[in-house]
Design goal:
Elements (H helix, E strand, L loop, with lengths): L3 H8 L7 H8 L6 E4 L6 H9 L3 E6 L2 H6 L1 H6 L4 E5 L5 H6 L6 E7 L4 H4 L25 H7 L2 H12 L4 H12 L7 H9 L13 H12 L1 H15 E11 L2 H14 L22 E2 L10 H6 L7 E7 L11
Helix pairs in contact: 9-10, 9-12, 13-14
GO molecular function: rRNA (cytosine-N4-)-methyltransferase activity
Protein name: Ribosomal RNA small subunit methyltransferase H
Keywords: Cytoplasm, Methyltransferase, rRNA processing, S-adenosyl-L-methionine, Transferase
Amino acid sequence: MPSTARTEAAGAVHLPVMLEEVIARLAPADGEVHLDGTFGAGGYARAILGAADCRLLAIDRDPAAIARGRDLVAASAGRLTLLAGRFAEMEALLAEVGVTRLDGVVLDLGVSSPQIDDADRGFSFRFDGPLDMRMSMEGPTAADVVNGWEETDLTRIIREYGEERFARRIARAIVAERADAPIETTARLAAIVRGVVPKSKDGIDPATRTFQALRLEVNDELGELDRALLAAERLLAPGGRLVVVSFHSLEDRRVKTFLKARSGRGGGGSRHMPQHPDATRAPSFRLESGGVEKPGEAECRRNPRARSARLRHAVRTDAPVWAGGTR
């Protein structure tokens, strides 16, 4: 008997966020080669293939997403190639199929609707399920982190990745509770967090930030993003378009910092994108709008998950790639 979450997920309609804006900024044209770095449920991929007679390569680290995309591959008349892996590895993945230059890259960051809606994946506390959160279904789970990490390390990731001011209180409660029995389900973890974090006036569940922090840690999402931005800089041809849709401030801040630096509008760096001392280098990207774009009210009413979306885009110049590698 399928669980309620599985039944709901099977019948759910996936709504790609800011789809019109993404296609307008990506501007696919006949004969071009584009990359959808986060295939997910295939919403952007369908729209890109429908917008022009172009070739599309799509990456996803989730085996379930790759399996879902087989019908679209079959219907694409050879124009769509699905690649299993991480988008930070896009250069190596594309090289395997003979692609070394792109006209466009789109990244839709974060967790996909099918992942959220499947209780067995453990991304959400809306339904009880195993505390997993792995996008690739490989490596340590969120339960491994919750039950194995020291209190100081739990505090750090909940504070940094969840931007949670009660991080120390939450970590202390987790350590105390796991002494009785391992914390293995989303429902138990959410209950622990709710027991020590006061309800907010905005109605956001007290467990939201802790779950976000664990997901980012388990999947190294911010490190993957840093490396993917550098890879896109190397792969995009002059005039190539980069479009990134993010869903929380940590992601958006990284994209903003990267594009400001590479467009000559500001410095900054991270562990993966060190700031180069040569401030005179030619910009490798050109910003064509004032900054961030947000979804309209109509879309937010139609799809509540769009409310936190932020879109940034830029066009690759003919300047050399900035030095520094991926680390």
